[in-house]
Amino acid sequence: MKLNKKGFAFSTMLYGSVALIAAVLYLILNINRDTIDTTYYFGEDVRARLNECVIEEIALENCYSSGRTCDATAYHGCLGVSDNQGQNTGVVIAETLKARVGNDGLIADPYINNRYIYTSSNPYNYIKFSGKTWRIVSIEPNGFIKLIDIQNYGSKKWDSGSGGVWGSNSTLYEELNNNYLGTLYDSGKLLDGLWNKPLIYQTAGGEHFNITTLVAQENGTAEGLPSVSTVTAKVGLLYLSDYIKATSNTNCQNNIFDKGDEDTNIDNCTSWLSEYKGWTLDIDGEEGGDDNGYAYYIGDKQTEKTPSTTLYNVPVLEKTNVSHDVYPVVFLNRNSVILVGDGTSGNPYVLK
């Protein structure tokens, strides 16, 4: 492998350190062979550690070769990098990703402090986890990594009883946090998320319901409107704002709900998330109730204009007992370790 100047010094130190450790272990083990023969066990452990470091060094070199800004320590979980609590946890994925803000489609969330989101048509946010390919939606203020499963879980009802309450009374909630969760063999890396249950009031958004209004209603901070309740669970769905923030269409962000007027046509809210459009957690606060539940999904719809116009990848209101596509969402532990990968579709991040 040919190393550039950035990688050479670190690589030399890396291989020298590991080689020294291996030599010391070899001497110790041979001195104690008469007592108990553990050479094979520890020899294989050292070999695995060396292989792991070599793989990570290749990944770092690939990062340099791509012309991107690369943090060398982010690629060396084999060295046991400590987080700021002093715990020897390996590479901290949240800090690794945040070091790339401004690259790979990752930006600071303009509406929530200390949060980072992936935008544009094809950001570098692919990741392999628990036998599935996911994409990273955001890095939350607490360091949790929000992932969306990009394999459609199927067309399902938000709630077969149309109660419109996300939680233990929702059939989709139960399906995701039981049957779906059981398909993830590495679920120990997942955290219990605190999911808002947003009530959306379109009439409270004025003539142009924009992203600022939506975020305030989703977080229960909109003046004159009810606060939101929450539910703790491993699996949930995206919010409307996750979809809207990912688009670069400012017209979409400034007028989320088309009113049917020519000057408010949101036209197309396309982003990388448009490939995975389905049910969201947002419900209609104005049409709610035990017997009249409505929730939002991202889809296409016809306007009431003459002639009719098709709007693509926009919020659509639907009865909760109607089936739409489902893309499960989870929170990954911030201390999970990236072993290899650069986040592209051909070379996704792979967790250790």
Write up this protein.
- It is globular, with a radius of gyration of 24 Å.
- Helix 5 (211-218) packs antiparallel against helix 6 (240-246).
- It is α+β, with helices and mostly antiparallel strands and 352 residues long.
- It has helices at residues 5-31, 39-65, 93-98, 171-180, 211-218, 240-246, 250-254; strands at 106-108, 116-118, 126-129, 132-139, 145-149, 155-157, 193-197, 199-200, 229-233, 235-236, 279-284, 294-302, 310-319, 323-325, 329-332, 338-340, 349-351.
- The strands form 4 sheets. Strands 1, 2, 3, 4, 5, 10, 15, 16 and 17 form a 9-stranded mixed sheet that branches. A 4-stranded mixed sheet has the order 8-11-12-13, covered by helices on one side.
- It has 7 helices and 17 strands.
- It is 26% helix and 22% strand.
- The chain has 2 domains: 5-78; 155-327, no CATH class.
- The model is unreliable at 5-9, 31-43 and 80-90 (pLDDT under 50).
- Strand 1 and strand 2 (116-118) form a beta hairpin.
